[in-house]
Amino acid sequence: MDLRVLKLATRVINQSNRDRPADSVLRTELKSQEGLPREYGRIISRAVFSYYRWLGWLDRNLKLSDQLLAALALADRYAKDPASFTDDELMSKAVPAWLTEHVTLTPGWVRAIQAEPVLWLRAKTGQGPALAERLGDCEIAGPGLMNDSVRYKGPQDLYRTEAFQAGDFELQNIHSQAVGWLCQPRRGEAWWDACAGEGGKLLHLSDLMRNKGLIWATDRLPARLKRLKYRAGRAKVFNYRATIWDGGAKLPIDVKFDGVLLDAPCTNIGTWQRNPHARWTSTPTDVKELGVLQQRLMGYAAAAVKPGGKLVYAVCTLTREETSEVAAAFEARFPDFKPLAVPDPFGAKPEPSAHHSFYPYERGGNGMFVALWRRDNPEPPPSPPAEAAPAAAPAPAGA
Fold first, then answer.
1. Percentage of the chain surpassing pLDDT 90?
2. DSSP secondary structure string, 124-171?
3. pLDDT tens digits, residue range 260-307?
4. Quick one: 179 exposed, middle or buried, by C-beta within 10 A (0-12, 13-18, 19+)?
5. Whether residue 323 sits in one domain with residue 190
6. Is residue 395 scored above 60 in pLDDT?
7. Is 114 part of a structural domain of the chain?
8. 199 lies in some domain
9. What three-state secondary structure class fits 79?
């Protein structure tokens, strides 16, 4: 391996920790390197992520540079011959032991996250086949509802392509695309993307709405909304407004919406294929605390849904505490929200369902959970004031 590549990869790993995720450190380091060939960026990224993906196999007594080379050798071996690793070996070394208490872990899941990630693109509505032909080295996820999801297998730097600069596609995981399809927003509706981040799902909602109606985007970090503004400009998305929301009880917008998407903060366990560093920084305490936060945010989001409107809960994790338990607790607290059964966008499940779980071994996408409800009943009228209690009888004289 080129000495400069090895040096930069070890620098990224040495700076990475729970508060400074490896992917963030990597972006910063690559931006700071003047004159670094772009293909080096891909090589350095692969080295860093291979290190964390194969960390359970490495001899931590070796120099970090030697561990990196060993990790890359393991990655190459797995790409050529996955069967040379046993299920037991992968289940015990690829993920932390505590995970089995919170998810149903399977060999298929672990084998999927040990593979290097698949690159999915989302074309503008109706343009998937044309984009695939234009870029080359592509395959379509469809036919059917996901016909605009395009898997790219080629060597191009997609950010430099004319099609990307023109806003003709976004780089978006296929299961994140499924969330937008499950929302099924219609032209002219009002939606709230409550935890919008940098806006990947908002851009999809806008495209499905043909840039009609209005989408409010909120996030607690201004930097994310600034990035959304840039992305929206490139994608020619104009039907949105953005403001800060800290996740508190005071809602940022005094409006009732046709739809609310709560893509809630979570442990991101479903992203461990493309973000293997998080395997070793997430904790069981995170699972518990985020489950509590998600239930609180669900209550706030429900208050903004108009009668007849839709609430969509999505997380890129699969722990019970953040998925089925959040959905069950919400339904117990808010009986006027009825589960909304919709078909599987991939056609894999024959019957419509209100809860959808997507796994990394399905299409190479992130692990995700999505649940949907419709608010069927009108808001209850204000409670009448409590009747005043009768005045106490005067105490007998001499009491």
1. 86
2. STT-HHHHHHHH-SEEES-SSTTTTEEEE-S-S-GGGSHHHHTTSEEE
3. 999 999 999 999 999 999 999 999 999 999 999 999 999 999 999 999
4. buried
5. yes
6. no
7. no
8. yes
9. helix
Q: Is the dihedral of CA 351, 353, 358, 363 positive or negative?
A: positive
Q: Give yes or no for residue 65 having a pLDDT over 60.
A: yes
Domain that holds residue 213: 175-375
Q: Do residue 155 and residue 68 come from a single domain? A: no
Closest C-alpha among 383, 6, 127, 386 to residue 138: 127
Tokens of 105: 């872990």
Is residue 212 within 8 Å of residue 188, measured between CB atoms? yes
* 253 in the same domain as 218: yes
pTM of the model: 0.91
Write down the H helix ranges in 140-254.
162-165, 174-183, 200-208, 222-235
- Name the pLDDT band for 35 (thresholds 50, 70, 90): confident
* Number of domains making up the chain: 3
Within 10 A of 15 (CB to CB), how many other CB atoms are there?
Answer: 14
214 lies in some domain? yes
